[in-house]
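All the exercises in this workshop are built on plain-text protein records. A record pairs a protein's sequence with a compact description of its fold. Read left to right, the backbone structure tokens trace the chain's path through space. Once this layout is familiar, the rest of the handout is easier to follow. Here is such a record, shown just as it appears in the course material:
>
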Amino acid sequence: MSTRDLNVGLVGHGYFGAYHARAWQRLEGVELCGVAGPDARAVNEFAEQHGIASAHDSLLALASHTRPDIVDIVTPPETHAQLIRECVISGVPWVICQKPFCHDLAQAESLATEITNSGTTVIVHENFRFQPWYQEITALIATGVLGTPYEIRFNLRPGDGQGPEAYRERQAYFREQPQFLIRETGVHFIDLFRHLMGEVDGLFARLSRLNTTIAGEDAGMVMFEFANGARGLLNANRLVDHKTDNPRRVMGEMTIEGSDATLDLDGSGQIRVRAHGDQDAVIHEYQFDDIEFGGDCVYRCCQHIVSHITDGTELANRVDDYLVNRRLESLVYASNREQRWLGIQEPLNRYP
């Protein structure tokens, strides 16, 4: 790459788009050169609010005017495929797309095939693995302190799903999604479990809708079996909270059990490790910035991508790898519907 700043164009000006805008503006060597969205008034207000130089009513106009090196797509899933195609047509070399990447698995797989050899690299903005506590846990596992990992459990308890007005103020589109808990939030933990424990061999799921004012499921349990023999459990309920001053920081609590030690992560981001046979857990000291969303994970994810572009560091969440998460998401819904255990090799073409 040249020594000039990377030009970034942002597509999307909603609640989460603001996190992306602020992250790009804090990164060295990056210029957030424009924002696009179909609502001219809203996108102009967003540009003014965030000090973005130009606002456009379409991605094509943004690409023509600013010639971005990176386009960051922060829009609903049903818009992803067309916007990525427009990036390819415009010759944008790097595209970042919010999860879950496209409307459904079939569209995601078709688009992945389309963009092969296009000259455009597409990366999914899967930011949970960049939350600082998970980066620290990744490093701890690598040291061998847990020994052989046997089991991972996460209790998802954001406590934001109660009542007739649930989700309306922050992300109202949550209310209309026919597949909500797993497609919107659970896919983060599918990626995270793979990141921490390895590839999944199979799973079993039971899902339910507790708040009948929304369209999709908001609670459930998914049990995973990993290729290395370990097990995992995602125990999720968006109506229930957990002990923390900020339910959206970690969104719940995690336990990882191994042959030599057990690790616990609480809602404050604190990590405790108890050695096998000991009575007391020891606090694992580490530092993180408790700012923005999820310990500043949007910034950390964008920084990771820029480091790859400028320095050639290894890149996480390329589309071909992220398709595995989408396949596992489809298996979760299929397992719940068919009420049986499904292996990763199960044919997926009939599943949503």
Summary: DSSP finds ten helices and 15 strands in the chain. The longest helix spans residues 319-338. Residues 6-125 form a domain with the Rossmann fold fold (CATH 3.40.50.720). The mean pLDDT is 95.
